[in-house]
Amino acid sequence: MRGDRSLRATSSRPTRQRPAAPVTPVTGGLGESARRPDATLKVKGEFAYSSDLWAEGMLWGTTVRSPHPRAKIRSIDVSEALMVAGLATVLTADDVPGRKTFGMEVPDQPVLAWGDIRYQGEAVALVAADHPETARRAAALVRVDYEVLDPVVDAEAAMAPDAPALHPSGNVLKHVKVRHGDQQPTADVVVTGEYEVGMQDQAPLGPESGLAIPDGEGGIDLYVATQWLHVDHDQLVASLDLRPAQIRMTMAGIGGAFGAREDISIQIHACLLALRTGRPVKMSYSRQESFVGHVHRHPARLQYEHGATRDGRLVCVKTRIVFDGGAYASSSNAVCLNAATFACGPYEVPNATIDCYVTYTNNPPCGAMRGFGAVQACFGYESQMDKLAAALGMDPVELRLANAMREGTSLPTGQRVEGPAPVAEILRSLRAMPLPPNADGAGEAERDLRELPGGVSNTTHGEGVRRGVGYAVGYKNIAFSAGFDDYATARVRLSVVAGEPIAEVHSAAAEVGQGVVTLQLQIVRTELGVQRAVVLPADTQVGSAGSSSASRQTWMTGGAVKAACEAVRERVLALAASKLGATGRLVLADGAVLVADAGAAPTRVSTLADLLGAEVVEETVEYRHAPTEDLDPETGQGNAHVGFAFAGHRAVVDVDTELGLVKVVEMATAQDVGRALNPQAVEGQLQGGTAQGLGLALMEEIQISGGKVRNPSFTDYLIPTILDMPPVRMDILELGNPVSPYGVKGVGEPPTISSPAAVAAALRAATGRALRRIPVRPEHITGLLETRTDAVPDDPTKPARISAETQ
Amino acid sequence: MDFLQPRSWSDALAAKTNRPDAQPLAGGTDVLVDLNFDRHRPAALLDLGRIGELAGWSRDDDALRLGAGLTYTIAAAELVDDLPGLAMAARTVGSPQIRNRGTIGGNLGSASPAGDAHPPLLAAGAEVELASAAGSRRVPIREFFLGPKRNALAPDELIAAVLVPRATGPQQFAKVGTRNAMVIAVCSFALALHPDHQRVGTGIGSAGPVPLVADDAECFCEGALAESDLWSTRAAIEESTRRRFGELVAAAARPIDDVRGSAAYRSHALSVLAARALGWAWADYRRS
């Protein structure tokens, strides 16, 4: 039973049957906190994740990866591996039948490397065997002869003219220039700063995994946890050299994504192995492999120069941002564009000079992660706003209020902000929230260690602890930008089963934990007035839904489901008119067609069961948001974005200033979500996004040395625990959105954008230190480690000149 | 890989004699992680989980005997009075699930410089009881650690127990990590006051190739306490004494830069932890 697969067993056996009795135990329409259909299973540990997939007689695939960040492959000898008992096959680049590279935006990454190795962990060969351990042992026997080369590990160095070209197109992957207003402005007060953001990982708990099953006719079924089935499908078609219809993909139970599943991981590899062996092949990365098997958040260096009048009006912002894109393009181009368009923050900035670069290096490839370029920029511009406030002797919130963007503001790209842009409202809301009580008064013996920096590790009983409060506000685009044809498809089918009307929704929207399945159910129940509804598994038997990214699915797939429901409803009401002669204002509610004329009590025309009988009403709709345009390459002008979402944070921290340890006492956030269609899901996004931002501020970093990842495990890649993450005080604003279905805005990413900057600001307030890099380490708080950026002269009277390169 | 699962201690010792290459397995919180990461492929696993006599602890007058299978959960709950330093350290280990599985004997067997049980056992002056089919011997704990993840166990030996005097004075344990729970020590420090002998015991974790004792700091502190007759008067310790003690603890460390922290930070943090721990322990002593 295809529909029930994710609802039942711990070990999931995919089949290609349609569900027989599709009933989903979700109640609640739009605006209610409808419960997730998978909630109970997940809490009980019974949900089938992609790593639980299983098929009779399946093989296990594993990947041979390069230990070197930069090398040339001289030769590959698989003869020893082939001798291992239980081995089914070993594949190398020669075995890729179609396009030998993949990539979402630029197909620059080898499916299996031949010639150049560009990062540590690059896939070189594949092995399939009857047991995962056998596969790993055989993989260890694949002898690859490498000529090891010096890696290029610094994004600035990669841009130098004498740097070795890592790709034929050169090392600068993209340069976005924005020129807005006067390019030689003068300002009363100028502050400069240089900031750095480390490489964060999405750290989804579910590893990359999936199951590929050959259909015996040359085609294949792939069950995989992914964010965007159709963009995977396109890349599979190209590399497997099959017709599109020969490849069918179905979403498997996903254990988090946050951007990490936008790129191909096991998809092509598992299909290659399955097609070669004629047997089902399962692949599931270990934690260590997962850390090198998906892209990360771009590390960034950001130079800023802010000019303002003496009374605190921004005159100009000049910035140069350099992202390390790592070995392959992934979605770097879009990240770079995003950062450039948001580089000045949610403020009125009359003059701006923005240069944003992303370069190739031999570091791990970077791509999509929650916040997508806006996170790094926010840390830069909000650090600058605090610095500017200090230079002006102004309150940091007052400075922000004085310059806050509003509806009608022109961005540095020339785009006018349409619809609510409640930056000032968010700041005022945060400032008005009561502050948590200061624990200083409590006696030593009374303090619970868990409330102190260090927790039960017993590092302080109050010694050295100082409190700090910091604010930050940020914004970001919703949905795809810069001329991308962004659409989502939904099919809605209304029929009568066992005397009751039932609505089925079919879309390819990836449920990555955000609740898009629940939301689709809420929409059909509301729009069609039925109790019973089911969302079919997301697969490629229906058109693309676009990615579960850019905070777009509620708007886009929500919009498609709404439109499909409207089309179905129109046909049902027309049927009521033609078959029963119903007239007046007809509506669907409570499983019936009603006449609901103004001023009169609604009266029932017919139940849906009676009206439809054996008839099935099905409509498929593609929903598109308004078109956007790419930026002008020389001026950076253009209406690149369709909509914006705004959020702010206030962080309250207690810092052990002698040890550099931190207890975040409270995170408060205010966010305009347009309209909360599922309030509990919205709250979950705000809490989770805030936590992920707090993690970036305090601990989450992939540490790299010489191109090699030093901490590919949860032993040393730390994410916040419940003792690190405080309760979140939330103010959810519902100000609507004139151009989206139901007035929604996306909610997934904004909470991650301003949270790191707010924590950093609070740490500065507590310690008085510059703290120009996140994650902030104890070494920085105690002053034992100066970051490269800390060495930059910090004299507002002598602005460091940021060279506005033209390229 | 063979899996050996003896039901009694004598069977376990016999198995270890027959298969000196067998990797002992207690809670599995280190061994299974190593297997998962493919860092280690022992020819055999020797599961000690079915041997009842290894679990738990006992007290004979002022001598404690901690079975090698004593879990952190039980240590944290039951040793608060008799061995408070170890109880505090046990409370900082991993998550509840890890504390339910992980054992003191396993910690010693792994002999990681970052093992949380080591510093309080050093400060308390423990001995490790090692057993083989031929008999058993006691090794003072500071002679037990030979190098990073190397200890004094002979190939045919297993850790039977830890023997440690019951606390006669305050004990403290403090650990620095870059998160407030479930974290491996960047560095840690344990302190035990022994008023009966007017001695001070120390233990340093995760700041050298093995867990260390700060001999000079102990001597300095004992001297400072004796000089002003503080054991008897229970008067306050000067802040300068605490600070100097911290400096000497830091000086005893041999830290390195690694992914968890820099050597300079480790030294600095140890000096802070040691000064604070002495203050807390002495305040407890004055109240006692």
What attributes characterize this protein structure?
heterodimer; A: 807 residues; alpha+beta; Aldehyde Oxidoreductase, domain 3; Aldehyde Oxidoreductase, domain 4; 3 domains; 31 strands; B: 288 residues; Uridine Diphospho-n-acetylenolpyruvylglucosamine Reductase, domain 3; Enolase-like, domain 1; 23% strand
Folded structure, characterized:
The complex is a heterodimer of chains A (807) and B (288). By secondary structure, chain A is of the alpha+beta class. Chain A contains 17 helices and 31 strands. Chain A is 23% helix and 25% strand. In chain A, strand 28 and strand 29 (708-709) form a beta hairpin. Chain A has three domains: 59-150 and 207-254 and 261-293, Aldehyde oxidase/xanthine dehydrogenase, a/b hammerhead (Aldehyde Oxidoreductase, domain 3); 300-480 and 630-791, Aldehyde oxidase/xanthine dehydrogenase, molybdopterin binding domain (Aldehyde Oxidoreductase, domain 4); 487-624, Aldehyde Oxidoreductase, domain 4, CATH 3.30.365. In chain A, helix 5 packs across helix 6, helix 9 (374-392) crosses helix 10 (396-403) and helix 15 crosses helix 16 (750-767). In chain A, the strands form eight sheets. Chain A has a seven-stranded mixed β-sheet, with helices on both faces. Helix content of chain B is 39%, strand content 23%. Chain B has a five-stranded antiparallel β-sheet. In chain B, helix 3 packs across helix 4 and helix 9 packs antiparallel against helix 11. By secondary structure, chain B is an alpha+beta fold. Chain B has two domains: 7-41 and 55-165, Uridine Diphospho-n-acetylenolpyruvylglucosamine Reductase, domain 3; 171-287, Enolase-like, domain 1 (2-Layer Sandwich). At the A-B interface, loops of A face strand 11 and helix 12 of B.
